[in-house]
Write a structure and sequence with these properties.
Layout lengths: L4 H17 L4 E6 L3 H12 L7 H5 L1 H4 L2 H4 L5 E8 L7 H5 L4 E4 L8 H20 L3 E4 L7 H7 L4 E2 L5 E2 L7 E8 L19 H5 L5 E3 L2 E2 L5 H7 L15 E3 L3 H4 L24 E2 H5 L3 H7 L9 H15 L4 H10 L5 H18 L2
Helix pairs in contact: 1-7, 14-16, 15-16
Keywords: 4Fe-4S, Cobalamin, Cobalt, Cytoplasm, Iron, Iron-sulfur, Metal-binding, Oxidoreductase, Queuosine biosynthesis, tRNA processing
Cofactor: cob(II)alamin; [4Fe-4S] cluster
EC number: 1.17.99.6
């Protein structure tokens, strides 16, 4: 059946209404072309800012060519889902060096599965009404998600490279549906409202935001604690503080996040008190406990040894204590080379702090 223009206009509104029913705060539709953002990605890769994330370069072409990823794609439906838990203790935890700071997005259940399921349900609903071919993505394929979301009116890309919405800040996930339906396009609503603000650049612990809109992943704590599979550069370890999985500093200081709302999605609520746990407590988990407590969590992807690696750095940056030293010594027997190196580094740091 061939739809008319008015029918596609109605369908687009229905998609947005259905999106709210599935828990999305904002749905927008853009063309399936994004050369400006593809060019920015190309320049970023040429500067080697992607570090060891070789998949970024290997699949670069697909990011600029949605139809090659999903045949027939002419529109991208972008969806926003807020995730900020009621976590008033974020800065409090950062200010306590014996606590473990875990990025807010990773405190609850893994967002990939939840959002992909909701988007797939939305795609099925679209197909049932209008037919067509649709495919859902959630940070799982080479998609220029922030670029498409910006085009679709969900916000603007800020100086920290995050997508920012003037009514919701940046504490949200993005997902997409590639479709071959000629849906009406939403105009960009917001562009470049960062102005002269430099908060994110000035407060980045490792100086990873090397210039406005440019992040060198090789210095970013999120990259170092999650993506990097080898040793964390020694010169960066003291700058990481107690951040053991990801980093939220550029969001914590962003003025636009005063408009962020706590999520109503229960699956994003903190589990196992990960929003307020001691470094020592988490470091002393054995592998069985780690796997049990991170089941269904984004944290599990780094594996037990990198979990120990990250926490060892946090302990090395914490105040010297007999309990911390004993914990580090105790876990040496469970550590493989990647973790062991950082445990020994941490012991040296605490030894120097404890020296008279």
């Amino acid at each position: 059946m061939t739809q008319t223009s008015s029918e596609f206009n109605l369908l687009a509104q229905q998609i947005k209404d259905w999106g709210r029913e599935f828990g999305f705060a904002h749905i927008g539709i853009s063309p399936a072309s994004n050369e400006a953002h593809a060019q920015r990605l190309r320049e970023w890769l040429n500067k080697q800012y992607h570090g060891d994330m070789t998949y970024m370069a290997e699949r670069e072409g697909l990011r600029a060519a949605p139809a090659e990823l999903h045949t027939g794609t002419i529109r991208v439906i972008s969806a926003r889902m807020d995730y900020l838990p009621n976590a008033e203790n974020m800065n409090t935890v950062l200010d306590k060096p014996d606590k473990a700071y875990i990025s807010r997005y990773a405190l609850g259940r893994d967002y990939h599965k939840l959002i992909r399921k909701r988007l797939s349900q939305l795609a099925e609903k679209i197909s049932g009404i209008a037919g067509g071919q649709h495919r859902a993505f959630v940070d799982s394929a080479p998609v220029l998600e922030r670029g498409f979301a910006e085009q679709a009116g969900l916000g603007w890309i800020g100086k920290n490279s995050m997508l920012i919405n003037s009514k919701a800040g940046s504490w949200f996930f993005l997902g997409e549906i590639y479709t071959d339906l000629p849906l009406p396009i939403d105009p960009p609503q917001e562009t470049g409202h960062c102005g002269s603000c430099r908060a994110c650049l000035d407060d980045c612990p490792t100086g990873a935001i090397v210039a406005p809109y440019q992040v060198d992943a090789r210095r970013c704590i999120s990259y170092l604690t999650i993506e990097l599979k080898t040793s964390i550069p020694e010169e960066l370890r003291p700058l990481m503080g107690n951040r053991v999985f990801g980093c939220d500093d550029c969001q914590l200081v962003c003025p636009w996040n005063k408009f962020a709302q706590s999520t109503a999605e229960k699956d994003f609520s903190p589990r196992h008190q990960l929003d307020n746990s001691d470094l020592i407590e988490l470091f002393l988990w054995d592998e069985k406990t780690f796997l049990k407590n991170t089941e269904g969590s984004a944290i599990r992807r780094i594996g037990y040894q990198r979990w120990l690696r990250n926490l060892a750095v946090g302990l090395g940056n914490a105040p010297a204590s007999k309990a911390a030293i004993n914990a580090l010594k105790q876990q040496r027997s469970n550590a493989e080379s990647i973790a062991l190196e950082h445990i020994d580094w941490a012991l040296e740091q605490l030894k120097e702090k404890a020296a008279p």
